[in-house]
Design a protein that fits this description.
With about 260 residues, this protein is mainly beta. The chain is built from 1 helix and 13 strands. The chain has a domain of about 170 residues: Porin (Beta Barrel). The two termini are about 40 Å apart.
């Protein structure tokens, strides 16, 4: 695809951009990021409460970048007098990017997950590959990455996945991802991440994840955040839904200057 056409498509797929945008954070080796919390509750015939806590930090220099993040999610619901836990999840990740040049970089990633609702004690994933900074401007930063990964899943109870029943499943996958960060003026930031992990060996199918956040600054420290999470597994454990999604609104605290 010609460079001009590719760039035009990137802008069209996200949103039209204003002429002005905030400067990106300096690459001085300082830790910067956000910590956020979202809480919701409803009453009446159906009662529910949910809490989500997220944090992401990054340390960037001209040579490399180290990113860390963690998420906790808990929810309970009551219908016709019966109360049950509907979400109890925890996840964390770390990724190291080493710049090979102005556009290219190599990365290594570790991700950990636990989900008590589906009896998942631990899902651990290791991956490595190459990334390309397709666009890197103050208004829009867009990265494409690809590589290979290995995933190990351990369940407290036996599960049936792809016709096999066990408490442990392993797979080798491709890692394909698109990351975008868009700055709208001085106060609004949009971020998107789409990742696809097709299985090329072992148990299971394709895992796809989409994450989107819109943040509007209230002051230099606080911002209002709206987030969307969609997680799809083409071959989930027997009796489980293939797609999980959540939409939440909360406050984010800025970490670092």
């Amino acid at each position: 695809m010609p460079a001009l056409t590719a760039r035009t498509l990137a802008f069209a797929l996200i949103l039209p951009l204003p002429a002005l945008a905030a400067d990106p954070p300096p690459k001085d080796g300082s830790w910067r990021g956000t910590a956020g919390a979202a809480l919701s509750a409803s009453g009446g015939n159906t009662r529910s409460q949910s809490l989500q806590i997220e944090t992401e930090l990054a340390r960037e220099t001209p040579a490399d970048r180290l990113g860390l993040g963690a998420t906790l999610r808990y929810a309970r619901g009551e219908v016709d007098g019966t109360e049950t836990t509907t979400a109890q999840q925890a996840s964390a990740f770390g990724q190291y990017d080493w710049n090979l040049g102005p556009r290219w970089y190599a990365f290594g990633r570790l991700a950990l997950e636990r989900d008590d609702i589906v009896a998942l004690d631990l899902r651990s994933g290791l991956g490595a590959g190459l990334g390309w900074k397709w666009l890197d401007t103050p208004a829009l930063r867009l990265r494409l990455s690809g590589g290979v990964g290995a995933t190990d899943e351990r369940y407290a109870l036996a599960q049936t996945i792809d016709g096999r029943t066990a408490t442990q499943f392993r797979r080798t996958t491709l890692l394909l991802a698109l990351d975008a960060e868009q700055q709208l003026g001085e106060s609004t930031t949009l971020t998107h991440r789409l990742s696809v992990e097709p299985t090329i060996g072992g148990d299971g199918g394709t895992r796809s994840r989409y994450r989107a956040d819109a943040g509007v600054a209230i002051n230099r420290t606080l911002s209002l955040n709206v987030g969307l999470r969609v997680d799809h597994l083409s071959q989930p454990p027997a009796g489980r839904q293939a797609t999980d999604s959540s939409l939440f609104t909360g406050l984010n605290w800025r970490i670092g200057s």
